[in-house]
Structures are given as C-alpha cells and as structure tokens.
Amino acid sequence: MMSYDKRHYDSVESWRSSESINLQYDRIAFTYAMISSDVKSILDVGCGTGLFFDYVLDRKDVKFERLLGSDASMGRLKYVKADRVNADITCLPVDGLSFDLVSAMEVFEHLSVDEFVQGVNELVRISKRYILISVPNNERLEDNFVICRSCKTRFHPSHHKRSFKPDNINDLFQECGYRATTIRVFGKTAEMVLLTPLYRWFKQIFPPVHRAESPCPVCGFLLKGEFRSTINPGKPGYLKRIANVLRLFWPTKYKGRWIIAMFEKTA
Fold first, then answer.
1. For 4-265, CATH number?
2. What is the rounded average pLDDT for all residues in the chain?
3. Taking the domains of the chain in order of start, what are their residue ranges?
4. What is this structure's pTM?
C-alpha cells in the first residue's frame, strides 16, 4: 500500500504552482552560485519536479558533463528535463564516487531517524568531492502543526520531521570525512513582535485542520478545499488576511528562511 508520505509527494500541483516556483527561484540561484567551477557532474537527490536543473540548464556560461536527478515520486520526476531515476535517498542505484557534487535540497527535514542516517551515508558514498544541502532555518515544527479532521492527529502539513540550525549543520558530515566550507542563511521570514508568539499559543489550543493535498500521515485523510481554521470554518484564511493588514504598521523582526551549506571532502 502506498505510504501517506509518498502520496503527499506525488501530489505535484503545489510543487509546480507559480507561487511555489517564485518562492524557490531566488534560493536556487543563490545555491547555484556556491558551486565550484571544477564541478562537472551533479546528482540532485530529492530533485522533485526539477526546478534546480531547470535553472542549471538555462545557464549559458557553464556546461556540465552529467546531470542526474533522483526522486521517490514518479509523479514529480516526469517534469525533470535532465536524466532521472526513481529512487529513495536511502538506497540510490548509483555507483560510488561517481559525481563531483551530490546535492539534497529541502530533503533532510523530511527524513525519519533511520532514513537520515542512511541518507547521509548515501551522499557520502556517491560524492567524489562536494556535498550541497539546503534546509529550513531553525523551523519550529510545532508552530506549523495542523490537525487531521478525521483521526485528530497533529502533524506538519509538509511532512517535516526535524529542524536544523547553522550550528548543527556544521558537523553534519564531519565524521564522514567532510568539512563545511560555506554555511549561509538566505531569504527571510517575518515575525511580528508580541503577536507571533501569541498566535503560536493560539494554534496550540485551536490547531487548523490540515490543508488540501496534504494527506494525514496516520490515516491518510485528504481534505479537498480551502485551508480553514477550526475556530471559524466558515471564513477560510481570515487570520492570514488580518496578519497581512497588521504587517503594514506592526513592528516586525526577520530571520533567515533557509540554511544552505557546502561540504568538501578532506581526504
């Protein structure tokens, strides 16, 4: 039976929406600029619908000898313009030491404990010299938890399972013989002074029901329709509309949205 995690990733509409593409484009451009000129081959693990390779292939200044994207979702892979393989990060059908650079962007936050260890080992096994990753920066998973209308399970709507800070990224591949050469925080998210912590508290008491195209990881329930608050299901998104108005004048703090890190083999 298809896992509910896989069902979530097989839903491609949200991944190819103009809003999603615009949100990711600047991060991808920033990430690409970190790649050394001596890289001639790239394996992009968890490539999704291929937005990273779309950017790479549009570049006219650099030509790569080999590009390969891997993803566990066949529904997403059909959009990838480079060579592609249907595979999970825990077991990649790729020879060892076969790519100059192995990337995994917005992947590690989705992995369970066992998958995380296996994923790290696979990237190290395949990379000749570089590993490149990006993850959300210091994400408070509980801030985004939603509640399944069917079984009442609380879960992250994007199926995130872990959070990262720049400090713990630094040592991620150290025991495997890699050192972090560059760690940067990119993008920004807003936090309204006093109101954001208050909203966090509110959501702990009244978590929103889970949104469309995000199946519950426990029972698989899939809501079709608008994102609705449990406190007032007749007015979808009303809290977000209020927040957008308040941002026009309310004191706001910002933090980096993503951590992007480049690792290089030391031996």
1. 3.40.50.150
2. 85
3. 4-265
4. 0.84
